[in-house]
């Protein structure tokens, strides 16, 4: 089935089985390996992307659901030469360790800060609640989001 959508501001057309997971299309068919598979069940948030401006777990989205949609992945936020302020804050504050959760954490932070540019620690915790990290203990992640919020004020 041919599916047409906008991916990181570019028009894309892919030929894929309609029930193939968006995560697999991104990683295998389009070579965008930023989104990670942590659990494959929508529990960890490592595969989080923006689908029509909504934060979703791409492991739960069949590609057929993406027809005509607008998708933003971690690759669409910034580049190595020009990091997005959230990516820069994660780098500066040590919000990433092993890197499995980082793309999802950054995307969840992006979603949170678009809705609330000056969140409290409690609001950051709630905004990141769908994303699990096994390495950091969350302190540096929360510090990263707090720092990134300074650029959204």
What does this structure look like?
The chain has 153 residues and is α+β, with helices and mostly antiparallel strands. The protein has two domains: 75 residues, Ubiquitin-like (UB roll) (Roll); 68 residues, Orthogonal Bundle (DNA polymerase, domain 1), CATH 1.10.150.120. The protein has five helices and five strands, in the order E-E-H-E-E-E-H-H-H-H. It is globular. The protein starts with a strand and ends with a helix.
Compose a concise summary of this entry.
With 153 residues, the protein is an alpha+beta fold. It folds into two domains: 2-76, Beta-grasp domain (Ubiquitin-like (UB roll)); 85-152, Orthogonal Bundle (DNA polymerase, domain 1).
Keywords:
153 residues, alpha+beta, Ubiquitin-like (UB roll), DNA polymerase, domain 1, five-stranded mixed β-sheet, 15% strand
What general outline do the C-alpha atoms trace? globular
What is the class of the largest domain in the CATH system? Alpha Beta
Strand arrangement across the biggest beta sheet? 2-1-5-3-4
Residue-averaged pLDDT:
96
Number of domains: 2
Look at the structure and name the CATH superfamily of the largest domain.
Beta-grasp domain
Order of helices and strands: EEHEEEHHHH
The poorly predicted ranges are none
Described by strand count, sense and barrel closure, the largest sheet is: 5 strands, mixed
Number of helices: 5
β-sheet strand percentage = 15-25%
- Structural class comes to alpha+beta
* CATH architectural grouping of the largest domain: Roll
Rg (C-alpha, Å): 15 Å
* Distance linking N and C termini: 44 Å
Helix content: 25-40%
